[in-house]
Amino acid sequence: MSPVRAVLFDRDGTLVHDVPYNGDPARVRPVEGAREAVAALRARGIRTGVVTNQSGIARGLLTVADARAVNRRIDDLLGPFDVWELCPHAPDDGCDCRKPRPGMILRAAGRLGA
Fold this sequence. Notes:
By secondary structure, the protein is of the alpha/beta class. Helices cover about 30% and strands about 15% of the residues. It has a single domain (about 5-110), classed as Rossmann fold (3-Layer(aba) Sandwich), CATH 3.40.50.1000. The protein has 3 helices and 3 strands, in the order βαβαβα.
């Protein structure tokens, strides 16, 4: 069995409380235990990343810049994460990156060398 080299997290509802279509970094609140879980992985030399669907961008409810500002706030509170991957598409866009499709996960894993 090979050792775990990286862990990818979902953002909303996993690392931080889900605020639908959040584009405001001031509204970011970590989920209880998230900071400790991420720190425990880092202490073991395991790299961390985040993969997040952000369909609010395609819907015109927030911009890529808004989403990145929220991600920076999460990095400030819980990070820094080694990699971020974001899908800006709507559910019906047919992209390869929107979870549960594997595009973001494969890109993040490749960037992490995992």
